[in-house]
């Protein structure tokens, strides 16, 4: 397991960046970089489950392990979802279950520094090294608009 980090400076206040990240409409836009039709289903409260889904209702489920409005959103990934149903743990999911994905927004030079730190298995490092900067650039464009 490796920890990777992505950052982007955004010329917008933290509140606007936060809304772009987690508002249903804009979330679907910036996460389309990973999979067209992506969505997240949750009540967005600390301790709650969240379903990260593609257009076919496949994806993964996680827990919101930390939530501080306009500052921090941390996810702990648990398992896979197929056809909208949480799947039991298997050998594959056990290899990454418990991995984290952490978003941190800090004030920087009149704007916001968005940092994302993720635990990652070797098989996904190249994919996320390619896609995550594109996704964060999309967040930047939406927040600065």
UniProtKB/TrEMBL annotation:
SUPFAM superfamilies, A to Z: Bet v1-like (SSF55961)
Domain Activator of Hsp90 ATPase homologue 1/2-like C-terminal: 11-122
Gene3D superfamilies xref list: 3.30.530.20
CDD domains cross-referenced by the UniProt entry: SRPBCC_CalC_Aha1-like
Family: Belongs to the AHA1 family.
Protein name listed in UniProt: Activator of Hsp90 ATPase homologue 1/2-like C-terminal domain-containing protein
Organism for this UniProt entry: Flavobacterium limnosediminis JC2902
